[in-house]
Design brief:
This protein is an alpha+beta fold. It contains nine helices and eleven strands. Helix 2 packs across helix 3.
Length: 290
């Protein structure tokens, strides 16, 4: 391999691939986690908080194996394990009134492996049309509750899409800047208003609440800011009205493909792409060269 590969946002040379192959050959008793942690230590591949980027490294190793560049030790567990979603009792009584009768609406940041987290995943998995078995990488979860502490909505912000033409043209960055600065973006991957909640203007109100605190919460959790949020709205399911009402910018549409569609054969629903800037200089930050 003579060219530089970029996987999981990291550039890999022929020397890097040789290093990985030598580590595997010299340590036949190492499992994949041990290998990925050793590489992270050697390369000082860490999050802004100083934690090893172990999950990203393991994903990189799997992709290298798929390309035939390395042969990894056998996996100890299946790679498609899904989180078991507990069935958490919850009130499904109809709430149909004006927004002012529920205010103030509060957003509760959801932490891992708590009772609120179990309820969050139960509601998302049961009532969101895409479900929600888990997530990897940097993310923020919120549960919205009304003045009586009743859950009314759930939101999940996760990793931004690696590449999408309308967004990349809108930002104006090149491939190098995208690889370097993609972590300054997030994707609103799930937004659920619970089906028994029928409150006009609630969705756009909750979006506004989340956007006003999102960058601060992200900085507190991951030690870096974000400056742009994106989302993909499935045309076959939704019109995107709440995003429009919350002043998101529609910048184009997807091509009806998935990230696994290497050969342009998988047809999926067209999705409208919306973005919301969190700072006025977001393009400068995203296109920065250092």
């Amino acid at each position: 391999m003579s060219r530089i590969l970029t996987i999981q946002g990291r550039e890999l040379s022929a020397v890097d691939i040789k290093t990985i192959s030598n580590l595997i050959a010299d340590n036949p008793d190492w499992h994949r986690t041990r290998l990925s942690k050793e590489l992270c230590e050697r390369w000082q591949w860490r999050t802004p908080k100083g934690l090893l980027k172990d999950m990203a490294c393991r994903s990189m190793l799997r992709k290298l194996e798929q390309k035939g560049l390395v042969t990894l030790p056998a996996a100890r567990h299946s790679g498609n394990r899904q989180r078991r979603i507990p069935d958490v009792p919850h009130d499904c009584n109809l709430i149909e009134t004006g927004l002012r009768n529920l205010r103030p609406i509060q957003l509760i940041p959801v932490q891992n492996r708590t009772a609120v987290d179990d309820l969050f995943h139960c509601l998302m998995d049961r009532y969101h049309y895409l479900g929600c078995k888990g997530h990897v990488g940097e993310h923020m979860k919120y549960m919205a509750v009304d003045s009586e502490n009743r859950p009314v909505a759930c939101l999940l912000f996760g990793s931004a899409a690696w590449k999408t033409s309308p967004r990349d043209r809108f930002i104006g960055w090149d491939g190098a800047a995208r690889r370097r600065n993609l972590n300054l973006m997030t994707n609103n991957t799930r937004f659920l208003i619970l089906p028994w909640i029928r409150i006009p203007h609630l969705a756009s109100h909750i979006l506004g609440l989340s956007l006003r605190r999102l960058s601060r919460d992200w900085r507190d959790k991951y030690s870096h800011n974000i400056c742009l949020v994106e989302t993909f709205v499935d045309r076959s399911q939704f019109a995107g009205t709440c995003y429009q009402a919350a002043n998101w910018i529609k910048i184009g549409s997807s091509k009806g493909r998935t990230r696994q569609d290497r050969y342009h054969r998988i047809q999926v629903s067209i999705k409208d792409i919306y973005v919301y800037p969190l700072t006025t200089n977001y393009k400068k930050l995203l296109c920065a060269q250092s």
